[in-house]
Amino acid sequence: MSDELRGQRILITGASMGIGEALAREFAARGAELLLVARSEGKLRALCEELRRMGTPCEYLVADLTKPEQVASLVEKILAQGRLGGVLHNAGAGLYGAFERYAEADVRELFELNFFSVLALTRGLLPLLKKSPRPTLLLVSSIVSWRAIARLSVYSASKSALNGFAEALRVELKPDGIRVVNTYPGRTRTPFSANAKSFGWRPFSTERSGTPPEQVARKLARAYVGGKRDEFVSWSNRLLVWGNFFFPKLIDWGLGKYFQNK
Ligand SMILES: NC(=O)c1ccc[n+]([C@@H]2O[C@H](COP(=O)([O-])OP(=O)(O)OC[C@H]3O[C@@H](n4cnc5c(N)ncnc54)[C@H](OP(=O)(O)O)[C@@H]3O)[C@@H](O)[C@H]2O)c1
């Protein structure tokens, strides 16, 4: 246990499993008070009970973040509680397959979760954040926001949209003392790919391979505490971004080859 975040009340979306669950444990170990959000009430309750037993003040709220009315009601409940020092915008989902096979409703639902809920929560919670010492917003984007992958078009676009939002907001909110940290995990070992909606293509299993979520959570927490601008979780991912900047055609070819038989 450390005291780095002692007294900071932090909202974590998508905390019922995967990276969000690991973030909850990591931020608890750094002394934060937690407010967890997801749809799976049983998992949130069990995690909160476990963290409380270890001395972390923890509460949870159940919400489906694809539903704007539930996001609005979540904001109202948090405003009524009256205290918030940071938000980890982590909840998100994937959409796999050829773009022409996606239904319009699937595309919009993905954007509701991965993008619009982040905007609505941020807008709604700003009044509370402005009253807090060292308030911080951390976004969980993805490396595909920098270098999109074929058959992950809409997922990649939803994360690229987050990047644009974060970049502008960082400068806009600086006078209010609010820090904006954007983070780009690569493949992480979570139920992400099993939970993703798929149209005939599932390129890899994140259940069996990828960086352990605890390691990702540690890096993200360090970036949060240090108020870092961006956090690329792995060096190979950072190299991919540089490679794509200088040699985009080569990377098109390389990624095409890598994924052609997957
Ligand atoms: N795993 C990777 O390889 C990877 C790589 C780069 C970026 N990311 C990003 O990291 C974040 C976390 O992903 P993960 O790997 O931990 O995936 P995950 O294991 O599938 O967890 C996703 C979390 O989001 C919550 N969630 C999903 N739909 C929701 C909804 N409609 N309303 C509220 N909460 C919802 C889920 O909880 P409930 O189902 O209980 O609602 C769960 O807690 C996502 O933003 C993802 O895009 C993941």
Strand content: 15-25%
CATH architecture: 3-Layer(aba) Sandwich
CATH superfamily caption: NAD(P)-binding Rossmann-like Domain
Q: Please tell me what the overall shape is.
A: globular
Count of all domains: 1
Stretches with pLDDT under 50, minimum 5 residues:
none
**Largest sheet, described in full?**
7 strands, parallel
Write the H/E string, N to C.
EHEHEHEEHEHEHEHEHH
Q: Would you state the CATH class?
A: Alpha Beta
Distance between the termini: 42 Å
User: Order of strands across the biggest sheet?
Assistant: 3-2-1-4-6-7-9
Q: pLDDT average, as an integer?
A: 95
Q: Which assembly state applies to the chains in this document?
A: single chain
Number of strands: 9
Structure notes:
- This protein has one domain (9-260): 3-Layer(aba) Sandwich (Rossmann fold).
- The chain is of the alpha/beta class and 262 residues long.
- The longest helix is centred in the middle third of the chain and has 27 residues, at 104-130.
- It has nine helices and nine strands.
- The strands form two sheets. It has a seven-stranded parallel β-sheet with strand order 3-2-1-4-6-7-9, with helices on both faces.
- The chain starts with 8 loop residues before the first strand and ends with a helix.
- The chain has helices spanning 18-29, 41-53, 68-81, 104-130, 153-172, 192-195, 213-226, 235-246, 248-260; strands at residues 9-13, 33-38, 58-62, 86-89, 95-97, 136-140, 179-184, 197-199, 230-232.
- Helix 3 (68-81) runs parallel beside helix 4 (104-130).
- It binds NADP nicotinamide-adenine-dinucleotide phosphate.
- Residues 14-20, 38-40, 63-66, 90-93, 113, 140, 142, 185, 187-188, 190-192, 195, 206, 210 line the site of NADP nicotinamide-adenine-dinucleotide phosphate.
